[in-house]
Amino acid sequence: MADSHDSQRVIVVAGDVTMDWNLARKQRMETGLAGWNADGATQVYLQSGGTGLLAELIAAVAGKLGREQYDVRQMAVAADTVRPGDERYHHSYALWSPVKKAENSKDEVWRVEEFLGLDARKTVSINENKVVNDTADAHTVVLDDAGLGFRQQSELWPKAVTTEGKAPWIILKIARPVVQGGLWEQLYKQHAERLIVVMTINDLRLTEVQISRELSWERTAQDITRELIHNPQINALSRCAHVVISFHTAGAFLFSRGRASEKLPARFQLIFDPKEIEGTWSEKYPGGMVGYTSCLTASLARQVMLGPEQPNIERGIQAGLAAMRELHLVGYGKKDEALTFPTATIVEEIASDKSLFAVTDVRGDRWTILQERHTGGLEGLAEKIVLEGAEAALQDVPLGQFGKLLTVDRQEIENFRSIRNLIGEYHRRGQTKPLLSIAVFGAPGSGKSFGIAEVAQALLPGKLAKLTFNLSQFRDPSQLLDALHEVRDVGLSGKLPLVFWDEFDTKLNGQELGWLAHFLSPMQDAAFQQGQINHNIGCAIFVFAGGTKESMEAFDRGDEEFRQAKGPDFVSRLKGYVNILGPNPQGGEPLYDPYSIIRRAILLRSLLARDVPQLFDEGKKLRIDTGVLRALLQIGKYKHGVRSMEAIIGMSLLKGRSKYERSCLPATTQLELHVDAQAFQNLVQRMELKVDEKKLELMAEEVHKVFCENLSAEEKKTHSSLKDYADLSPDEQEQNRGNVRDIPQKLAQCGLLVIPVRGDEQAVGFSPYIETLAEQEHNRWMKAKLAAGWRWAAATDKPNKLHKDLLLWNEKPDQESESIFTPAELDALGDDALLEAEKEKDRVLVRGIPRILEKGGFTIIRNAEAGE
């Protein structure tokens, strides 16, 4: 509280102050004119930057809350009395230009074209930089340590920082070098438990840490977590109440220290935009801005004002990130207006409490956000991706979008972004020697060339010329020289050659990997020799696409034959590589690669949208028979990868059709060329309950009620699924939907049919089949779990996909179970038989089938063809 008014809460804002001199280029000089002339027009605007700007923003945020008790106290900064070079302050300079607000917008706003630098003072004036009417009894202290001297000038620090006693909340906005200086030592020693540290990822990277850049959200978050825990340069941060690290406008990392009194462990969280990675959002909107981190800091200060006991830091980050984006979009006003920080707009954005970003806890080394969000029920998720698109189905999962290439696999995203970074850096430097050489591997038909081409062309649109040479069709090295001449000619035309050397790992004149030696000189020297003449290639990107090996690990085998073929020399000249996963599960089993069905779904939608766009309605939803979709997604293997998927679509009778019906599929003999035709047709014809989404949800909810009602009294105390259906995770809801869809399939094996209710007819009984149907339901549940990568363990551990009930109905595998489960799936199951108590849960679900069907307006009759 303040000195004179008990009801007031004092917020002290202090730190490094800059005078920001903003040069607005209102009209450019005509191109080619040198020296002074009157054609250009530039105007200078001055604003208080650094702590001055932050204090203005926090005062406005406090005022928006409508509470008179907040008293924001700051330094005596009088920008209207400042002149260039004023010794009392630091001065920063930036050149601003009008740019389009957004890609398709007609409006232009002021953004920074170039930061011109800083005129820093060794020391600043104490009088002008000291907090006016300072008090040791502050409610909150906000410090802006820009590394310009404030951290060492203790005489400028607020009294609440240096006085022992009741600790206020302290928000420290810190720039590089972080976790250094006298101010940090004071805060760490006395206020760590109520200290909130805010910094950017770039400032953290400029400390002695190892944190990846622009690869994947998971990789970056895990790198930060590791450094905070283990790196002695920064692990002191783990004693702070909260640490917030922003990725510019793309997201933030949040560390929150545990509270032993409440038995709360330390928590590492990632707040992220699934469609972006650091740096990519702002690429769409040219220009820079001043004040990003001030927006985030002011939003956190607002949460401290709203909840002084336990401020909602996550909500503060969400609103702060939204404000940062709004700042970038609106700029410092429109083109025809004076440059000024948009305080009122930013305060409104902070106060709106928007939650635009996904949130997840950071986990272990093999963690992916996709697997965390979707631990089961992958068939339903895959179907939704094909029907509605990945963005609709995977709203909270990172997407890797590179032109027309879309992937959700973490490893693929990291590999493709790594290649993107290599190509971007090579192009920026304009290097000619050595060439940029990349390798890409994958199964035949996995789309090797497509992936790299989309990454490169999306990064450098209109600047590339793609060339493709298949080395398996070359008879001798002289043809390689002809190809290199063609590459050289393209480079001389002004385009950057993107050259694909397909099947580079094939034999040359009977010699394994015989082509490798012929590429060593071009890769190293960007030149090749023909006779006595040496020809320079110039800038070029060489992409070596494997034909005989499906991964870099298989190619770089290190044996004597590989060394004799100059394999190590070749690999040493590569700057990167990608293993393309393709539509088939790695290792041939979904158990080893459960998320292959998600890759397949993304590929399938892309192929259908490209080849048969008339199958999509105005809302971009696909019209397709459920059996056809099921078969395309769940068939065990496409014999020729993506090419087989393309072939099946191409052979289907879809011309002039608006829906992909079963009757459109090619003949069995044609299917057999690309898939196991019998297995494919079985999937097409498998019976599932066809209901609209509303009825399906009603019936799935009833499944959940039947399950919960029959739990034992002891289980009702501890079972994690004992909650309303609406509160279940998406995967748990999908498990219940799977039960509903499979009811006709189970009943059909007992000679029973599911039909809509007609009049008041009663469902036929099926008591003799309870045990058989219960075992089938258990097997269906296990198949779904195994397909999602689960395994048996003595105790259930959902985050790690372990379940104690992954056991056969009977102890020993019999002929029937061996026909249902693959050898790999049987290996993933436990050795014992399912406990009787767990069997009873399956029997309960079977007995509840009439009740579940009634919710959707269905009943059971005996199939007349099946007999009695």
Mind explaining what this structure looks like?
Helix content is 38%, strand content 18%. It has 868 residues and is of the alpha/beta class. The strands form seven sheets. Strands 4-1-7-8-9-10-11-12-13 form a nine-stranded mixed sheet, sandwiched between helices. Strand 10 (242-246) and strand 11 form a beta hairpin. Helix 26 (693-709) packs across helix 28 (730-748) and helix 28 (730-748) packs across helix 29 (770-787).
Any chance you could write out the topology, listing elements then pairs?
Layout: E1 9-15, E2 17-27, E3 41-50, H1 51-64, E4 70-73, E5 90-100, E6 108-119, H2 126-129, E7 140-145, H3 159-162, E8 169-174, H4 182-191, E9 195-200, H5 201-205, H6 217-230, E10 242-246, E11 251-256, E12 267-272, H7 280-283, H8 292-306, H9 313-330, H10 343-351, E13 358-361, H11 369-373, H12 378-388, H13 390-393, E14 400-402, E15 405-407, H14 410-429, E16 436-442, H15 448-459, E17 464-470, H16 477-492, E18 496-502, H17 516-525, E19 527-530, E20 533-536, E21 541-545, H18 552-555, H19 560-564, H20 567-572, E22 576-580, H21 596-611, H22 626-634, H23 642-651, H24 668-671, H25 677-685, H26 693-709, H27 713-718, H28 730-748, E23 752-756, H29 770-787, E24 791-792, E25 802-803, H30 815-820, H31 823-828, H32 836-847, H33 849-855, E26 858-862
Parallel strand pairs: 1-4, 1-7, 2-5, 7-8, 8-9, 9-10, 16-21, 16-22, 17-18, 18-21, 24-25
Antiparallel strand pairs: 2-3, 5-6, 10-11, 11-12, 12-13, 14-15, 19-20, 23-26
